[in-house]
Amino acid sequence: MKTKAAVVGGKSGKFEIDEVELAELRDDEVLVRVVGVGVCHTDLICRDQLYPVSFPAVFGHEGSGVVEKVGAKVGKVRPGDHVVMTYRACGRCPACRRGDPTHCAEIFGCNFGGRRADGSATVHRHGLPIFGNFFNQSSFAAYALANEANTVKVDSEAPLEYLGPLGCGIQTGAGAVMNVLRPAAGSSIAVFGCGSVGLAAIMAAHVVGCTTVVAVDPQESRRSLALELGASHAFDPTQGDVVAEIQKLGGADFSLECTGIPAVFRQAVDCLAVPGVCGLVGAAPLGTEVTLDMNNIMFGRSVVGIIEGQSVPDEFIPRLVALFRQGRLPLEKLVRFYALDEIDQAVRDAESGQVVKAILRP
Ligand SMILES: NC(=O)c1ccc[n+]([C@@H]2O[C@H](COP(=O)([O-])OP(=O)(O)OC[C@H]3O[C@@H](n4cnc5c(N)ncnc54)[C@H](O)[C@@H]3O)[C@@H](O)[C@H]2O)c1
Ligand SMILES: [Zn+2]
Ligand SMILES: [Zn+2]
Question: Which ligand is closest to the CA of 50, given by its number?
Answer without folding.
Answer: 1
